[in-house]
Amino acid sequence: MNFADEIFELRELQRLEGHADRVWGLAWKPATGADGVPAVLASCSGDKTVRVWEQSPLTGSFQCKAVLEETHNRTVRSCAWSPSGKLLATASFDATTAIWEDIGGDFACISTLEGHENEVKSVSWNASGSLLATCGRDKSVWIWEVLPHNEFDCVSVLQGHTQDVKMVQWHPTMDILFSCSYDNTIKIWAEDGDNDDWHCVQTLNESNSGHTSTVWALSFNATGDKMVSCSDDLTIKIWGSDIMRMQSGDGNAPWKHLSTLSGYHDRTIFSVHWSRDGIIASGAADDAIRLFVESEDHLVDGPSYKLLLKKEKAHEMDVNAVQWSSMEVNRRLASASDDGTVKIWEFAASSAHKKLQL
Amino acid sequence: MDSTVDIFESSLNLEETHFKEGFDEGYGDGLISGKQEGEQVGLKTGFEVGEELGFYRGCVDVWNSAIRVDPNFVSARIQKSIKQMDDMLQKYPMSEPENESVSDIMDSLRLKFRAICASLNVKLEYSGYPRASDGGKIEF
């Protein structure tokens, strides 16, 4: 898609109200929102609940279809759908991770993973849905294997971060795990052979052009050869790796710093998400949402990125999460905020004014 | 000239003499109290390490007994982890506190123990069990 010749806008489609406290996380259910399957979105909140919203095929508006409550007794910080969309994992400050099964629109908690000493901050499924990762304030990263009959085995407890771990994220195609932390680093974890022996294979820190303050979130592009991270240091960083070498299993292909987007944010950047068609969205403490794309004029030492648009006052308070729908057809973005609302946005060429093409 | 120096020598060296006396006295006392303090710290640390190792030994022995009775008591993965803990406990250099491997082995033991407990869905602790995190500070 060519982003150069047109002016784009982020149009607010709907404001979802229902949570009684700040909204922390969002997850679009995989394979929904296209081919006649209504879009489904989960949101989690400081009100200890998870809400599941479904788009009505008739009116096109989202409605709350389920409230997942009375399981977590503290803030639900993060939620993630399994790749099949059958299970929803929710991570809570109550030190547990709950697994919910969607039984015809009714959600039942089928398992509770205990092990973290205190607040669990993030949860992520691997590409095949066979592994689950969690992380938290106890500085550890946990890997769980999904067994038959809703059982979960702890594969490994990983220690390496020296502070609170903010987010875990699996690589989109390979079983490589990424974690980012209050200790300003991103750590990359991989398995040695087939031995349950997971190790930190790389640490991205200040000495390799990494962040100088808390790293809040990270996300991958569609092919998985680039990663974006955002931080309290007011920058967004782009990292790249040799995907072919990674896939061939020929040792570890290291991740290298490609580009730093600085000067665009003046408050902490809490969330970053890369869309399937290459648009990076960021959510920050200045209540705004920004969109970035790779610009055509490449620099000698790597790709460069430009601000496509900035949506001021996207929310009334901090934007904690931004999440693109995985369906390319509708280019839909969801955002969650401290103001207690979730918003659905449509990204489209501005109908009002098209740039003159000379 | 020589005779006048002799008269004042003792008073001129007064400060230095007192300094040396004080230093020697302090050094002697410090040596005794330092040894006592060191002994106390050693006893305390030794007790803590022994208590933790003994606790793991006990858990591993009970799990091993359970596996002998019922080989399907736990999954193959957990059995392997229990075996790994067993090996680490055996090679832990109990009488060499200055051996550099002690903290590495203890860290590995703690991680394996947490993983086994999580998979078994049990919470095993004794009062005074070390926590991985310091707690205290609240942030998001």
Automatic annotation (TrEMBL), chain A:
One of its GO terms (biological process) is iron-sulfur cluster assembly. The keyword GTP-binding does not apply. WD repeats lie at residues 16-54, 69-101, 113-146, 158-189, 208-239, 312-355. It holds the Pfam family WD40. GO terms for cellular component: cytosolic [4Fe-4S] assembly targeting complex. SUPFAM superfamilies: WD40 repeat-like. The keyword Repeat applies. InterPro entries: CIAO1/Cia1 (IPR028608), WD40/YVTN_repeat-like_dom_sf (IPR015943), WD40_PAC1 (IPR020472), WD40_repeat_CS (IPR019775), WD40_repeat_dom_sf (IPR036322), WD40_rpt (IPR001680). Keywords: Repeat, WD repeat. PROSITE patterns: WD_REPEATS_1, WD_REPEATS_2, WD_REPEATS_REGION. Belongs to the WD repeat CIA1 family. Essential component of the cytosolic iron-sulfur (Fe/S) protein assembly machinery. Required for the maturation of extramitochondrial Fe/S proteins. This is Probable cytosolic iron-sulfur protein assembly protein CIAO1 homolog. The gene is LOC105161763.
UniProtKB/TrEMBL annotation, chain B:
InterPro entries: LTO1_adapter. It comes from the Eukaryota. This is Oral cancer-overexpressed protein 1 homolog.
